[in-house]
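Handout, section B. The chain below has 71 residues.
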Amino acid sequence: MNLKVILIPVHEQQYVFEPFYRGENKKLKIRGLGLGLPFSKMLAKAQKGYLVLKESNEQGTTFTIIVEELN
């Protein structure tokens, strides 16, 4: 599953999964605590999967979640 969100600058991409991290462009414009992506990554890990930031450009940001297939 892929989810599109706004552009994340390259210098901030390494921090997006850190709890309470809020990008410079979001701090004053968008409400939140900076817990959504860290929580999502934790949920993916609990399901033996992982969440990655695939790409971020002017069209948006794509995150990919990959989980183990159940037999």
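Note. The chain has a mean pLDDT of 85. Compare this with the example in section A.
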